[in-house]
Amino acid sequence: xxxxxxxxxxLERSFKARAWHGSAVLELLKGVTVDQAVQxxxxxxxxxxxxxxxxxxxxxxxxxxxxxxxxxxxxAEVDWPPxxxxxxxxxxxxxxxxxxAHTELVAAAGKVRDxxxxxxxxxxxxxxxxxxxxxxxxxxxxxxQIGLLKKV
Length: 152
Description:
CATH topology: Four Helix Bundle (Hemerythrin (Met), subunit A)
Number of helices: 7
Oligomer: single chain
Order of helices and strands: HHHHHHH
Structural class: mainly alpha
Shape: globular
CATH architecture: Up-down Bundle
């Protein structure tokens, strides 16, 4: 199996299921209600909804970077945009946006050929290898936060 395929496998495991560490992102989001998604049980911490919006942003940033678009700074209002939702429909739409962003990321990652993994897709960014592993790590980090927030 080529390296790009292995990375794609890990990307899917961290997001959908069969992650080695435990529950993947979508497994953790299953059954979360809008009330749970907007609760802030830990003062100063982000809500599940804010984390989902943040993850969506970064999946899209990495997909764009993999496509060669030079995305440098991500302003705070884009990095951690408010997640002002109040209905189940809005919560489902937010999770659907995350799923679409993941699909876009997988499509962009699937175009990366092994010889290009160690090269930056655009001037001023890191290698495709680091971008892909970084977004996997990002998913796992936030999956842990979501898991803890669900328990609080």
